[in-house]
Amino acid sequence: MLTLLDHPLLFCPFVILFLFLGSLLGAWVRVRRAEVVARDAGSFKALEGAVLGLFALLLGFSFAMAVNRYDLRRQLEVEEANAIGTTWLRTDTLLEPARTAERQLLQQYVPVRLNFVAAGTDAQAIQRSLTQSGELQAQIWKIAAGDASARRDPISALFVSSLNDMIDVTEKRTAALENRIPFLAWAILLFMAFVSSALIGISITSRSKRLLAILPIVVGVVFALILDLDSSRSGFIRVHQNSMMRVAAQIASSR
Asked: Would you tell me how many other CB atoms lie within 10 Å of the CB of residue 106?
């Protein structure tokens, strides 16, 4: 299940099949317990409406959570690009040899940050990028601290401030990429969807399996969309690194 949550294309048919089995179970109950279903038809309808309403509410909350997480990742990509760009521009305020040293380190830093997202679901590549980012940040900060200690003026403080923002946003992006809809929430959604499908199977009097498949297909597609939005490192809906690429091009052209 944890593997399926990393692959929306595999998760979708799994959900459809799982819910279709729920619909078939409901249809089986309707046939085997026809007298009970007919006698308590009103109760089944009320229960069906309540469960479907609650399921729709949970589905709406999950979709909103996924969209908010996607928007946050997109905003943080722009924020990091701005922080790096500002830090690069403020290297002009440094004295030599700190200016040249900082620029060389920043030229190495941007590709590492791009690789952090491009690593996808490769855990080793992600950890390698984080390690390299931390090492470069430590070197950049050491030089900046030395320059600020020697000068002790407001101009050097500007560079330290932008550098601090650049380092802080690294952890923000890492946390945003790791922050996903909890597994327990997915389990509850699947349970609610299964119960809803079973109740639909009980209420549909037609023996057509096509009708029984409508809800599983619709819910499966919606689940795949939510999972795709929530998956920061896989799927089709991903945050593009356009702002970071522009900063990389700006730094490359300033050499």
From this structure: 20
Question: Whole domain around residue 133: which residue ranges?
Answer: 4-253
pLDDT of amino acid 96: 87
Confidence of residue 205 (pLDDT cuts 50, 70, 90): confident
Total structural domains in the chain? 1
CA–centroid distance for 3 within its chain: 15
For 185-222, b where at least 16 C-beta lie within 10 A, e where not — what string? Answer: ebeebbebbbbbbbbbbbbbeeeeeeebbebbeebbeb
pTM comes to 0.84
- Residue from 57, 47, 61, 58 nearest 196 by CA: 47
Q: Which helix (H) or strand (E) holds 213?
A: helix 209-230
